[in-house]
Design goal:
By secondary structure, the chain is mostly helical. Helix content is about 70%, strand content about 0%. Keywords: Membrane, Transmembrane, Transmembrane helix.
């Protein structure tokens, strides 16, 4: 999904925003797991599973497609033509 809109923004800022979103979802996930895994609170455990699914939103929108175009800018394609074997 990010491939269609990555050309409209700077890759490094777009990727930074996506990584920040992924970090926030993992921080919330870690807090939920650390607090509620030993308990029988099913609502909190469902919220922990939901945070894993919500992680896919910033990853899919900002990180997944952006990383390919960003790495192509960091390591240009003329390096890929060399015989590395």
């Amino acid at each position: 999904m990010a491939v269609w809109i990555v050309g409209h923004f700077l890759c490094n800022r777009y990727l930074r925003f996506g990584v920040l979103g992924c970090m926030v979802t993992f921080i919330i996930e870690a807090a939920l797991v650390a607090t509620f895994v030993p308990s029988d609170n099913t609502a909190a455990l469902h919220a922990a599973v939901t945070m894993l699914l919500i992680f896919q939103i910033p990853y899919g929108l900002f990180v997944d497609g952006t990383q390919f175009s960003f790495w192509a800018e960091v390591w240009p394609s003329h390096y890929a033509r060399r015989d590395w074997l």
